[in-house]
Design a protein that fits this description.
Length: 399
C-alpha cells in the first residue's frame, strides 16, 4: 500500500520557504585529500600500443583528457590521481573516445567502476574488451510523435555557431488556442530520443505525455543540443582546464534570439513566471546562473546535479545577487555523484534560504548517480512542483 505524503515547508526562520527532501542516509564530508593509483594489468591484445585514459566524476567524464592518461611500465599501465576528497568516485577506461570505451568480454556495456575513497588507495583492474572491436547494436529512434526537430543548424549569433534544436509540443497543441509555459533545456540531444543520446535519454516526452493524460498542466519544451565547446558555453567563468567561459553569451542567445523566435512561432506564455530553464551537470550550473543573473527572464529553474565545483565563483555571485532573487528553484543531487556534489548544492540552498525571497526545493537522493536515469527519476517531481504554487502538493508513491 502506497503512502501519500503532503509536503509543507515550515522553515519560517528564512525570508523565503526552503523545502528540503532528504530521503535517507547521513552525509559527512572530509576536507582531507587523498590519492588513488589505478593499475591495469591485463587487457585485450588489440590496440596494445595505444594510449589509455580514465574518465570519471573527478574530471567531468572527459574520455580523452591528457591529464588523465595512463603511464606505462612494462606490461602495466598506471595513473596517480591526487588531491581527492573522501567521497565515492565512478569511472571507466577509454582509449580517448567514448566510441572505444571498455566493454565486457562479449562486447556488452558495463556498469561504471567505483571506489569509496577514505584513504590513499591502490587498485588493480583488468580490461576485458574495447567497444570498437565489436559490432554495437543499432540504436533506434524513441521520440514520441509530439517531438519535432525544430532546426538542424539554428544560428547562434552571440557565439557564431550553429546548433540543433528540438521542440516538444503538448498533445492538444494542434487542436486548440491555449498558450503554454516554455521550458528551455540544455543537452537537448539527451532529452527525447535514445538515437541521439550519448548515454541514454531522460524520456522527457514520455513523462510529459503521461502527466498530460493524468490531467496535469502541459508545457512546451525546447531542447538545445550541446556542442564541442559545452564546457565553455555552460560555464559563465573561465576555467584553467577548459578555457574561457561563454555562459553569458550562451544565455544571451536564448534570451535575445531563441526566446523571441519561440514566442513568435508558438503559442507561449512569455512572462518570467512561465519561462523556465533546466539542465543537468554543467547544464545545471548554467541553469542556476541563468536564474540568478537574469531573473527578469527566467522565473523558475530545474537545477539537476549542478557542477558547482567547475564554477565555484557562483557561490560568491549567490552572496551578491541572492538577496534580490525571487523565483522558484528546484535542486537535485545524488550522494553517489561524488566530488562534494551534495555539500556544494546544500551550501547554495542554505545561502538562498537565508538571503533571498525565492521558493527553494532541494532533493538529496542517497542512491542518486550522475546519469540520465536519475534525472529521469526526478523530472516529474521537479515538473509538478514548478508548475504548482511551490508551497505544497501531494506525492503519491503507490506502486
Amino acid at each position: 500500500m502506497g503512502l501519500a505524503l503532503l509536503i509543507i515547508p515550515m522553515m519560517f526562520r528564512y525570508k523565503n520557504y526552503l523545502l528540503t527532501l532528504i530521503l535517507s542516509g547521513s552525509f559527512i564530508y572530509s576536507f582531507s585529500q587523498y590519492s588513488i593509483q589505478l593499475r591495469i594489468i591485463s587487457f585485450p591484445p588489440s590496440h596494445i600500443t595505444e594510449d589509455v585514459f580514465v574518465a570519471g566524476n573527478f574530471n567531468q567524464w572527459d574520455p580523452g583528457n591528457e591529464q588523465y592518461k595512463f603511464m606505462r611500465t612494462g606490461d602495466t599501465f598506471f595513473i596517480n590521481i591526487t588531491g581527492l576528497k573522501k567521497d565515492i568516485y565512478e569511472f571507466k577506461f577509454t582509449r580517448g573516445k567514448w566510441s572505444n570505451v571498455e566493454v565486457s568480454v562479449t562486447g556488452g556495456l558495463i556498469q561504471n567502476r567505483f571506489i569509496k575513497l577514505a584513504s590513499d588507495t591502490i587498485v588493480t583492474y583488468s580490461i576485458d574488451g574495447w567497444a570498437d572491436d565489436f559490432s554495437q547494436p543499432v540504436k533506434k529512434h524513441t521520440a514520441s510523435k509530439n517531438v519535432q526537430l525544430l532546426d538542424s543548424s539554428f544560428f547562434m549569433p552571440q557565439l557564431l555557431r550553429k546548433r540543433r534544436l528540438w521542440v516538444y509540443l503538448p498533445p492538444a497543441y494542434g487542436s486548440g488556442k491555449q498558450k503554454y509555459p516554455v521550458i528551455y533545456m540544455n543537452d537537448g540531444q539527451n532529452l527525447f530520443d535514445d538515437y541521439t543520446s550519448g548515454y541514454g535519454e531522460w524520456g522527457i516526452d514520455e513523462l510529459m505525455d503521461s502527466l498530460v493524460r493524468q490531467g496535469k498542466p502541459a508545457s512546451i519544451i525546447v531542447g538545445i543540443d550541446n556542442g564541442e565547446k559545452r564546457m565553455n558555453e555552460y560555464n559563465p567563468y573561465s576555467h584553467k582546464d577548459f578555457g574561457k567561459g561563454e555562459g553569458d553569451q550562451y544565455l544571451l542567445f536564448i534570451i535575445e534570439t531563441l526566446k523571441p523566435f519561440i514566442d513568435k512561432k508558438y503559442r507561449t506564455l512569455s512572462s518570467k513566471e512561465n519561462t523556465i530553464i533546466a539542465g543537468s551537470s554543467m547544464g545545471g550550473l548554467i541553469s542556476y546562473y541563468a536564474a540568478l543573473k537574469y531573473p527578469k527572464v527566467f522565473g523558475k529553474a530545474g537545477i539537476f546535479s549542478p557542477s558547482i565545483s567547475i564554477g565555484p565563483e557562483i557561490k560568491q555571485l549567490t552572496d551578491s545577487l541572492g538577496e534580490k532573487l525571487k523565483g522558484q528553484l528546484f535542486f537535485y543531487a545524488g550522494v553517489k555523484e561524488g566530488e562534494s556534489m551534495v555539500s556544494d548544492m546544500q551550501e547554495i540552498c542554505e545561502k538562498l534560504g537565508q538571503d533571498s525571497r525565492s521558493l527553494i526545493y532541494s532533493v538529496t537522493d542517497p542512491d542518486g548517480k550522475h546519469n540520465e536515469q536519475y534525472w529521469h527519476k526526478w523530472f516529474t517531481e521537479f515538473y509538478l512542483w514548478i508548475m504548482g504554487t511551490g508551497l505544497s502538493y501531494q506525492i503519491n508513491t503507490d506502486n
